[in-house]
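Example for tutorial group B:
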């Protein structure tokens, strides 16, 4: 069996249609999906969800709550720290299952502990000199090239991340024509990836997910750190789009007394997640950005399965019955391929 796990970053579930994603739609009709999608972990940022995809753990267990993590004295990018716990790459390796990873966002190598895979690209999780998207992440065409360079298709377990839909959702908003057009071009790149598996189709299980949705931005600028200071309240604030995480901050009841805070939940003993009204982004104004994520409103993930392997209809029926969580995939892939993640 060959399993390939594809993440299309920020792909809105509503644009998985015959018109905008014809290649993915073919998978939906021949394999299966859940039309309501799956559920992201909180915050609905890219790095916590990728860490959950590969560990099967909630952020409270893998330690990545937003894109940056508290290192004991400050917030640093989570790629420098990586997830706590076992990963599908380590577990597959222990069972002699070859595995390879290609990501559009180079930071995801460190975020997922993917340097442990048999092969990964970009090699050191650093940006490389290839065609990039507007946010300087590898373009979809570069991702496809890298799939060939490291011969990902020969690995038993492949992990591929396409970044461009996230970039265009941020730039134009999730509902913009520009966004839908780019999604169609990412879908074409995805179709080229699928073609590479056609010679071994009967042996292939193809899983396609997104990590989060996006919401249209209506306002920027709420400075929660400053608001806490003005009331002499403690807590280090890390802004993450339409949410923020407060480290060692006040109780949720206190946070909820700020007009701009619409919801607050405890993630672990030291991290509390807050979010504002729809489309309200924490932190300073960023010109030219019209989509964002982070709050629970953007927690819908695409969940599609396809391929010619006999297990595909079994997974499809499980998918249709229940909305899967980001944490469900790692154990599912392990069960399929016969490896186990340690507790
Ligand atoms: Zn993302």
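The residue assignment follows.
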């Amino acid at each position: 069996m060959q399993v390939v796990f594809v993440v299309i970053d920020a792909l809105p579930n509503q644009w998985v249609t015959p018109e905008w994603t014809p290649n993915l739609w073919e998978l939906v009709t021949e394999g299966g999906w859940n039309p309501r999608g799956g559920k992201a972990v909180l915050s609905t940022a890219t790095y916590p969800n990728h860490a959950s995809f590969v560990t099967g753990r909630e952020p409270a267990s893998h330690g990545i709550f937003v894109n940056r993590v508290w290192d004991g004295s400050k917030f640093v990018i989570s790629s420098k720290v990586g997830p706590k716990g076992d990963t599908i790459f380590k577990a597959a390796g222990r069972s002699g299952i070859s595995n390879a990873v290609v990501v559009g966002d180079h930071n995801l190598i460190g975020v997922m502990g993917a340097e442990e895979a048999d092969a990964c690209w970009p090699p050191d999780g650093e940006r490389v000199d290839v065609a990039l998207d507007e946010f300087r992440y590898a373009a979809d065409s570069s991702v496809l090239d890298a799939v060939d360079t490291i011969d990902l298709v020969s690995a038993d377990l492949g992990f591929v991340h396409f970044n461009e839909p996230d970039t265009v959702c941020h730039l134009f908003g999730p509902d913009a024509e520009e966004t839908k057009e780019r999604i169609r071009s990412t879908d074409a790149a995805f179709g080229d990836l699928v073609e590479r598996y056609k010679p071994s189709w009967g042996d292939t299980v193809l899983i396609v997910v997104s990590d989060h949705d996006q919401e249209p931005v209506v306002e920027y600028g709420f400075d929660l750190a400053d608001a806490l200071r003005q009331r002499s309240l403690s807590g280090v604030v890390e802004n993450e789009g339409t949410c923020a995480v407060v480290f060692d901050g006040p109780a949720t009841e206190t946070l909820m007394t700020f007009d701009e805070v619409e919801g607050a939940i405890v993630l672990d003993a030291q991290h509390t997640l807050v979010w504002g009204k729809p489309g309200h982004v924490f932190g300073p104004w960023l010109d030219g950005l019209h989509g964002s994520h982070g709050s629970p409103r953007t927690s819908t993930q695409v969940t599609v399965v396809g391929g010619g392997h006999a297990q595909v209809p079994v997974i499809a029926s499980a998918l249709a019955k229940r909305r899967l969580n980001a944490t469900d995939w790692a154990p599912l892939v392990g069960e399929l391929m016969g490896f186990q993640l340690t507790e």
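The chain has a mean pLDDT of 97. Compare this with the pattern of hydrophobic and polar residues in the output above.
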